[in-house]
Amino acid sequence: MASVSPLVNTPSSAGSPTVEEESKAPPTASGPVPLNTMDSHVNQQQDLQVFTVGFFLAQLLGVLCVALAGAWSGHYLGGFAWQSVPSLQFNYHPLFMVIGLVFLYGDAILVYRVMRNERKKILKLIHAGLHTLAFIFVVVALKAVFDSHNLAANPIPNMYSLHSWLGLAAVVLFSLQFVCGFVSYLFPGVSQYWRAWYLPVHVYFGVVIYVLGIGACLMGITEKLIFSLKSDYKDLPGTAVLGNILGVVLVCFGILIVYLVTTPQFKRQSLPEEENLQLTPHSPIN
């Protein structure tokens, strides 16, 4: 009697396929849906539910960050003014940095995962639009802090603290990232090869700049509290408590955004019409 190889799957005695054969069989119009396809669909739905909950929680934390920054700057630090009162002009700096470099920037890098059923061309425009709005807030924030130093009765030196160094580094990198991203993905005439090569670099530095920006915000909060309260900081007056809470919420918001934007299971899947667009050196330009 000939022996049966263990690498060959034999049908059952009733002539029906085994479970392994059924799971490998391609789906047909009248046949059963493969088990592996069903499992994949269930996993995708579960991942999408987790992402949705995480996204709405992130939005709540983001709005809370902006509200806390507004209350801290508008009430505890004395309110807002422009160049007529340089000390109050400074208060636009923390508020606008939180709005631009943290909240809007965080939402911008989530666009592709949140609006996963939209065409890529639309997503590119929304992504660029949110970054443009964030960049405007960042520029005004820088104007406010430099004016508050230079226009003070006793001018304050610029760019001497670690906060200012890392903060400016984040803004410069953000500016370069903005220009490179615009040229690569919205400017006509750029080859698909370059776009494909630059994409992982663009994604990586997008997260790096975001983390760097939040780190600079935390150092800025601490620096402002120390300069304003001096030895009273240890007594935790209301200004210090709110500033510390703002820092904690910023960290929580940043952690959640980075988790949502880096988890592979949450990645946007290409639409059917995008499957044929191969990013090769000889591909035609979109």
What are its keywords?
286 residues; mainly alpha; transmembrane; metal-binding; transmembrane helix; iron; membrane
Helical content class:
55-70%
Task: Look at the structure and give the mean pLDDT.
Answer: 86
Strand content: under 5%
- The CATH topology name of the domain at 70-268 reads Four Helix Bundle (Hemerythrin (Met), subunit A)
Order of helices and strands: HHHHHHHH
Describe the sheet with the most strands: none
Q: Count the strands?
A: 0
Number of helices: 8
Q: For the terminal residues, how far apart are their CA atoms?
A: 63 Å
- Structural class computed from helices and strand pairing: mainly alpha
CATH architectural name of the domain at 70-268:
Up-down Bundle
CATH class of the domain at 70-268: Mainly Alpha
| C-alpha geometry | globular
Radius of gyration: 26 Å
> Unreliable stretches, pLDDT < 50, 5 or more residues?
1-26, 278-286
